[in-house]
Amino acid sequence: MNKIGFNVLAWTAAVSDDVFPIIDRLKGIGYDGVEFYLGSPDAAAYRRMGNYTQELGLETTAVITVGKEDNPVSESAEIRAKAVDKIKWAVDRAHDLNAKIICGPFHSAHTIFVNRPATDSEYALAGEVLHVAGEYAAQAGVVFALEALNRFECYLCNTTVQLKKLVEAAGHPNVRAMFDTHHANIEEKNYLSAIETISPYLAHVHISENDRGTPGDGQVLWDDAFSALAKVNYRGWLTIEAFSRNDPDFANAIGVWREFSDPWDIAEKGYRFIREMSEKHGLVKS
């Protein structure tokens, strides 16, 4: 049975006690888990959140990004070493949260471009960083689920073909992949071929509308996406990732300049939509 999660980035990038009321309401809607961005520096806050969600009976997953100063594909060995340290720090915070999955595009710096296509050497560099970090993650029982992003946010991995190449370059069982319907809506020819390509490594899925609003209200070909996930017998998380202007610093960093949908509209309608689509296509047992 697939579990349904919600990423609290719809409200905030922070991990703090202020998020507890949001967690309570998500639990009431029926979610199995919540996803957090690993950016807040206070380690104790992650431990408190991990304890709080565990007491509520909710599971957790996590997401991270890296930047110019800790870029795994940098030519600088010093910067790549910082990338390893950043990802190891994320593993420690995920452990504090009781999270077993860290997803996201942390194979390369977000929105940092070099005005050329990715090279084989960059896949090798990222693979080396991720392999080393994967060894550390394995000790904590954490799996990396790397993400392909659209061309406006990343140049290393835009498609699942490229993502598969990266995962295989890392060559570690704890370094796997995720699928995001928003990015795929921009970059892939169709959902079936994309999901079949990455299915041997697929460990996480983000359910995200083309405009980052309420799933089912936009242009994503949801029947195609869910039927493809059913065809490859995917049994992992189906986690809604949607954004808003509620956290201005985070919104500015990812280019969110308007409100897409009210976060609670996304959470309530999105949960029902995932249940309906999953049952329709045989992903969730009734």
From TrEMBL:
SUPFAM superfamilies: Xylose isomerase-like. It comes from the Bacteria. Residues 24-262 form the Xylose isomerase-like TIM barrel domain. Its EC number is 5.1.3.31. Keywords: Isomerase. GO terms for molecular function: isomerase activity. InterPro entries: Sugar_Epim/Isomerase, Xyl_isomerase-like_sf, Xyl_isomerase-like_TIM-brl. This is D-tagatose 3-epimerase. It comes from Dyadobacter helix. The lineage of its organism: Bacteria, Pseudomonadati, Bacteroidota, Cytophagia, Cytophagales.
